[in-house]
Each structure stands twice: as C-alpha cells, then as structure tokens.
Amino acid sequence: MYELFVLGELMSNDWHGYRLQEKLKHAAGPYRQISSGTIFPLLTRLERDQYIEIQGKELIGKRVRKVYRITETGRKHFYTLMKKPLKFNMDTDLVFMFKMAYSHFVNKEFQLACLEQYLEYLQNQLEYLRNETNIIEQKPITTMPKAQQNQLLKIFDHRIQLTLTGIEWVTSEIEQVSQLHSIN
C-alpha cells in the first residue's frame, strides 16, 4: 500500500526520503504512525527492485539526503499496482484514497473499475452493518442490557450514515467519470 504511495509521488516529482515520509504522514492521516522504520526499508527495497533510483543528493541543514526518482520499470510497476483490484480489508479505504489521488495517471476505464470496486466494498459494509443492527435489535433483553443495546445501535447507526454518505459520493464520482469517458 505504501509502495503505491511512494511510486505515485515519484511519478510527478523527485523527492528525498524524509520528504516522502512527511507527505505519507499527511496522506495517511493523524492516527497512522509512519516512521523512518517504515519508509526507508521500503525505499531500499524499491531501489533494489529497480523501481526507483537515486537521482542525486540534497543538503538540507547539516544532513545530506538522497533524492529518488522513479525508473521506467517503476512506472510500469506503478501502473500494475493502480490496476490491481481493491482487496477488502482494514486498509481498503486508504488504498482507495491513494488510487484516487493518482487516478489521473490511468485511463477512465481503470478509474471506473476502482470506483465500482470501492462501491461494492461500501455496499458490503452497509449490508453487514444493517444485518448486525437487526441482530442487536432482536436480542432478548436478558442477553444484553437495554442501555448497552441502545448504545450499540447508535454506534451502528453512525457507521451506517457514514457508509451511506460514502456510497452517495462514489456513485456521484462514477457518474462524473462516466460522462467524461463518453465525451473523450
């Protein structure tokens, strides 16, 4: 997942590792810890696999930083990652966000495929949340205190509302991308 981010960032600009780490921290959000122990081994592996190369070095303060650029092999690998179907797991939202950030590098067909996969993910999540809500509502009062049941129902309702908003947004994006597709 972070591999997609690094290659996506290097598609437009050459960056040093510390700057990539900072950009990834901002992209991943405030609750994901992106340490040097995450980014620098990844950069080493990407360089070993010849997806990136050192373009030069930059002196920042008293530190010399390696500046990376993407190779042609790295560009091909980036497109392969972009075209891979979304996996439905704990990282689906973040991978989708990365793919949307770099969607201008792929054609409309793959943009639509990603949006439709994410829509499927959200619809599955909605179905799960509604099923769980029904189960909680049907539990006899003896198996769960009423206060706990009410609180769980509020939590599930919150998640349902977030998911419905996501579905609405993705559906709108699919329409917009489809219209662009038919124009081009």
Please provide a written account of the structure.
With 184 residues, this protein is mainly alpha-helical. It has a 3-stranded antiparallel beta sheet with strand order 1-3-2.
Q: What's the end-to-end separation, in Å?
A: 31 Å
Q: Could you give the order of strands across the largest sheet?
A: 1-3-2
Q: What is the chain-wise order of helices and strands?
A: HEHHEEHHHH
Detail the poorly predicted runs.
none
Number of domains: 2
GO molecular function, one term: DNA binding
Pfam families: PadR
Domain Transcription regulator PadR N-terminal: 6-78
Organism: Seinonella peptonophila
Characteristic terms for this protein:
3-stranded antiparallel β-sheet, DNA binding, DNA-binding transcriptional regulator, PadR family, coiled coil, mainly alpha, Tscrpt_reg_PadR_N, Metal_resp_DNA-bind_regulator, 7 helices, 3 strands, 2 domains, 68% helix, 184 residues, single chain
